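wait is this the right file?? whatever heres the structure
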């Protein structure tokens, strides 16, 4: 899984990764997301959103979900010339956070997003949300169903002393 201590920056795609589903006026986050964000903040990690969504929509959704305060940087399609699958959005987030690709992990739910993060040299975690795609699994370094799965792994590692 992921050794949280090896990384200082955690970058999240918005649609499909943070926001699992969206129906009319209902927005559902990926299971375990808020608990994972809480954990990362307690560990003093830098957090960012890297999305192909517009700035207006990204800020609206993060504020609506009441998680906007978790993030140190938000890079949207309005902030770059080339969007995913180009690596530019991820490279911009790293530049703003004044860190390098080896210190970062990217959470994505599409081949386009995974490709962008990989081309930026970032470790990738494919969040399937129960809808696994073989091509995405082949691109990703790690595949998990949701953030609850990551938290279970972290908790079991700390319990067994690893």
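ok assuming it is, sequence goes like this
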């Amino acid at each position: 899984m992921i050794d949280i201590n090896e990384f200082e920056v955690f970058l999240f795609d918005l649609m499909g990764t943070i926001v699992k589903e969206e129906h009319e006026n209902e927005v559902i986050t990926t299971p375990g997301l808020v608990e994972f964000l809480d954990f990362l903040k307690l560990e003093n990690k830098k957090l960012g959103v890297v999305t192909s969504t517009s700035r207006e929509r990204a800020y609206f959704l993060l504020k609506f979900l009441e998680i906007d305060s978790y993030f140190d940087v938000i890079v949207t399609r309005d902030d770059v010339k080339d969007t995913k699958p180009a690596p530019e959005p991820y490279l911009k987030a790293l530049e703003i956070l004044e860190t390098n690709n080896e210190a970062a992990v990217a959470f994505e739910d599409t081949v386009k997003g995974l490709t962008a993060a990989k081309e930026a040299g970032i470790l990738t975690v494919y969040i399937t949300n129960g809808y696994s795609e073989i091509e995405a699994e082949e691109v990703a370094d790690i595949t998990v169903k949701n953030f609850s799965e990551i938290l279970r792994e972290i908790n079991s590692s700390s319990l067994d002393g690893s």
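Residues 11-157 form a domain with the Rossmann fold fold (CATH 3.40.50.1000). so i think its the right one actually
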